[in-house]
Structure formats: C-alpha cells, structure tokens
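Whiteboard transcription, Tuesday session. T.W. wrote the structure tokens on the left side:
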C-alpha cells in the first residue's frame, strides 16, 4: 500500500492514487489487493462507462410494465408514485457511493452488512442478493425467449430458446471485468431505447393499440385511460411493487462503484442515469397508456400490432441479452470475490483463478436456467422475489448505511441537516419495510390465483410465451 504524505487527502484521491500510483509504488486496492499488468484490472470503469452499466442495470423491459401500473393507479397517482420511488432509490444509490468512499474495502452489499451487523448481516444480505440476482437472470433468460418467439413466430420450442439464451449470456458474462463488459451495456441501452420508441411512436401515429384492435371498434377507437384509478389494495400494492422492481438495480451499484477508476465521479454518473431513466419511464409509460388505455399489451411492445411487435422485439433482443449478461456478471463476481478475496489468485491468471471464475458463472447460469425453465408460475414467482428481495436490497440497507456512518457523530454535534436526514433515512426504513411486506402479500395472492387458473403452463414448456 503506498504511503500518503498528505494525511488530509480525500478517500477518493487515495483510491485514485492506489490505482495509478507513482512508479516506485505498488498498485493496491482494498478489495482486490495488488493490481498488476499480468492480471485483470478490475478498477477500469470511467464515469461514462459507469453511466452505461447503471442504465443497463435498471433499463430493460421493466419499462414496459409502467403502462400497466398507470392503468391500475391512474396517470396522476401513478406518476406521483413513480417519482417517489425514483427519489428514494436515487438517494439509496447515492448512499452506496458515499459508503464506498468511507469504507474502501466494501465490494458488495454483503460487505456492508458485515460492517453494520456482523456475520449475520453478511450472510443474510449475501444470500439474499445472490438469490435476487439469480431470479433476475432467470427473468432475463425468459424475456429473451419471449423476444425470440415473437421475432420467429414461435420458430421452435421455447425451452430451446431459453437454453440458447443461457449459453449466449454465459459466454459474455464470463468476461472478467466491468470495464471490458461495458460495451454490452451501451449496445443494450441503445437497443431497448430504440425498441420502446418504435412502439411508442407507432401507437401515437395509429392513435390506438393497433389497426387490428381498432377494426374491432369499427375504427371508432376511444382510449379508456384514467387520470385517477380506483384499484383494490392488492392491485395498488402490486403496481407500486412493479415500480420498485423497475428501479431495483440498486444492489448492482456496489460493484460499479468498486470498479470505477475514480469513485469521486460516481455521483455524476448516478444522477445522469436516474434522470434519464425517470424521464423515459414517464414519457413512454404515459404515451402508451394514453393511447391504448386498458388495452395496452403486456409487455407493451406488442401494443402497436403484430408486425411492429416483431420489429420492436427484433431491435430489443440485444438489450434483453445485455440485461441478462450484466446481472449474471454481478452475481458471479460477488461469489468469485468472496471465494478468492485475500488471495493472490483474485488478480492473477492462475489456474485456480480461471476455474473459480468459470465455476461461479456456470453455477449461476445453470441455477437461473433451471428456475426460468422449471417453474410453471415463474412470472408470479419473480414478482414475489422482486417484492420481497428487490425492496429489501434497495431501501432498508441504504437507510441503515447512512445511519451507521452519521448517527453517532450527529448525536454528539446535532444540527438541523443531520436531524432532517436522519428522519428521511428512518422513513426509508419504514416505507421500505411496508412495501416489502405488503408487496409480498399481493404477490402471494396473485400466485394463489394463478395456481387456481387453468393456464396449462408446465416445466420446460414448448408453448409460445410471446402472446400478450
């Protein structure tokens, strides 16, 4: 570890010096240890690359659940809820960056749990985030199979598409560093953005969900959109949980901060990401719902009709794969770092390094594939995991992290700013716990209803899953 002549130097500057030391110093990182040219450089993500990875962590087909949310809540309450979730998750993501600067040895959320709550916190948050990423990966595999079915008009068995998506995702996710994987994030963001804009513009031009749909109304289509909805409690909390899930890439911001060249630029990347995401969610969700009303397709890429559905899904496929690659990489890397941390094999090209890395990516891929293909009510199960773990990984830990770093010092020298921020973080703990419990309840109700319905779904099904 290099010695710092100026002991007042900021933590971000220390991290930057550690990665780019003077020639007579050794490059050292609190997480990865010694970084040399002979091994992978895990600290090689610039602030622009961080924007891309942050965007792709959150910006996927989750955007196309927003019109359904507006249908449940109404446009005005829906946008208010969306802005509220955006504000809370932006704060949570900001706290991650500050916590990383204060505690350079933190790589993932389990490290934060260990600092705050000891071994129990490490294991609970570590297992929780691993399960969460596995289900997110499984959801990505299934979404890719939907896209392939849509483009090919169900050209082959859906189980084959899921397996193919798993093989491709494993190949790209096995790239060892986020710095070298960021190009997939850029490609994914561009493809998803283009696809949703194609669907949105087409619906606006048509003035309704599709020409086929309009024909059923003798071309006298009138949207039944609602400014204010009247959902039941279950419908309302499920809609809110969908918004939370659309912003629930928060656990992935830990490794992004850990692999940035200069962590002091993290907040800049975060604000660009959150502003773009929120603006697109509101614009696309509102336009699609305004023109389609309750007849908006789910996912909404099918709202513009069969032909444009194929075009939109064709454009979106790289984005679907990129989403799967990013979350698969996150979960594999967390497991990999935990196994080899403190060992020279973490940053060397040794046999143990490679076998451990490929073993982690393969294990996560197989687990995700089995879940995606083997659970008939997968969609409802993902909603349950999203409500239970998505909220638990994006709200409560970050409230605890801020209080961990600021509570004691603030109590000794209280100020109005400290009091307000303390109240805000306690509110995040309370509202996060409420949404988690209520959202889990709503998801269980939906699972029970789905189980009673004669859906005909089965494990490793060959049936077409792209029909809205």
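and on the right, the sequence the group agreed on:
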């Amino acid at each position: 570890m290099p010695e710092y002549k100026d002991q007042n130097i900021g933590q971000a500057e220390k991290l930057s010096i550690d990665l780019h030391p003077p020639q007579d110093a050794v490059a050292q990182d609190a997480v990865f240890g010694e970084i040399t040219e002979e091994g992978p450089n895990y600290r090689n993500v610039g602030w622009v690359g961080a924007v891309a990875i942050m965007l792709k962590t959150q910006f996927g087909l989750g955007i196309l659940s927003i019109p359904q949310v507006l249908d449940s809540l109404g446009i005005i309450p829906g946008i208010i809820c969306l802005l509220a979730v955006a504000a809370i998750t932006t704060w949570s993501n900001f706290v991650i960056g500050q916590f990383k600067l204060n505690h350079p040895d933190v790589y993932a959320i389990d490290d934060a749990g260990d600092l705050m709550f000891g071994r129990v916190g490490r294991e609970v948050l570590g297992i929780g985030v691993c399960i969460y990423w596995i289900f997110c990966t499984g959801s990505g595999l299934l979404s890719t199979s939907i896209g392939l079915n849509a483009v090919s008009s169900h050209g082959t068995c859906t189980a084959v598409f899921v397996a193919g998506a798993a093989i491709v995702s494993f190949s790209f996710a096995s790239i060892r560093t986020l710095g070298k994987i960021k190009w997939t994030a850029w490609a994914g963001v561009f493809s998803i953005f283009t696809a949703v804009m194609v669907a949105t513009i087409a619906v606006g031009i048509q003035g309704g969900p599709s020409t086929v749909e309009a024909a059923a109304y003798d071309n006298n289509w009138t949207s039944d959109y609602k400014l204010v909805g009247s959902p039941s409690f279950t419908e309302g909390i499920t809609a809110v949980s969908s918004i939370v899930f659309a912003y629930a890439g928060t656990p992935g911001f830990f490794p992004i901060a850990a692999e940035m060249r200069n962590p002091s630029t993290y907040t800049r990347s975060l604000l660009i990401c959150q502003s773009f995401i929120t603006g697109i969610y509101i614009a696309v969700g509102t336009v699609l719902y305004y023109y389609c009303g309750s007849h908006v397709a789910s996912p909404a890429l099918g709202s513009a009709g069969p032909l444009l559905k194929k075009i939109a899904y064709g454009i979106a496929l790289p984005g679907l794969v990129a989403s799967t690659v990013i979350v698969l990489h996150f979960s594999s890397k967390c497991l990999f770092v935990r196994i080899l941390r403190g060992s020279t094999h973490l940053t060397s090209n040794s046999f143990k390094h490679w076998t451990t890395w490929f073993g982690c990516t393969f294990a996560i891929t197989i687990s995700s594939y089995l879940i995606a293909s083997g659970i008939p009510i997968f969609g409802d199960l993902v909603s349950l995991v999203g409500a239970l773990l998505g909220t638990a990984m994006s709200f409560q830990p970050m409230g605890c992290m801020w209080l961990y770093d600021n509570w004691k010092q603030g109590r000794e020298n209280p100020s109005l700013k400290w009091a307000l921020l303390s109240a805000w973080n306690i509110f995040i703990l309370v509202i996060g716990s409420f949404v988690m419990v209520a959202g889990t309840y709503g998801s269980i109700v939906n699972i029970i209803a789905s189980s009673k319905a004669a859906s005909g779904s089965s494990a490793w099904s060959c049936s077409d899953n792209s029909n809205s």
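Someone added at the bottom: The chain has a mean pLDDT of 86.
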